[in-house]
């Protein structure tokens, strides 16, 4: 993926997170996969900072 594609995916995920936090019962249908789990672990370990 290039920079523009990463930013578009990040924007989409931020919007999904917003919907999860503001709409009771919202389900995006995104499966937790190995790639996303690695990203979560990177943020939780402090090697990548959350915005």
Please supply descriptive tags for the structure shown above.
single chain, 51 residues, mainly alpha, 2 helices
Folded structure, characterized:
This protein has 51 residues and is an all-alpha fold. It is built from two helices and no strands. It has helices at 3-22, 34-45.
Q: Specify Rg, calculated over alpha carbons.
A: 12 Å
Helix and strand composition category: mainly alpha
Please work out how many helical segments DSSP would assign: 2
What is the count of β-strands? Answer: 0
Chain-wise SSE layout:
Layout: H1 3-22, H2 34-45
Give the gist of this structure.
The chain has helices at 3-22, 34-45. It is mainly alpha-helical.
């Amino acid at each position: 993926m290039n920079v523009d594609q990463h930013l578009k995916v990040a924007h989409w995920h931020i919007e999904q997170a917003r919907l999860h936090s503001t709409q009771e019962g919202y389900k995006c249908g995104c499966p937790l996969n190995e790639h996303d789990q690695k990203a979560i672990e990177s943020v939780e370990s402090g090697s990548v900072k959350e915005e």
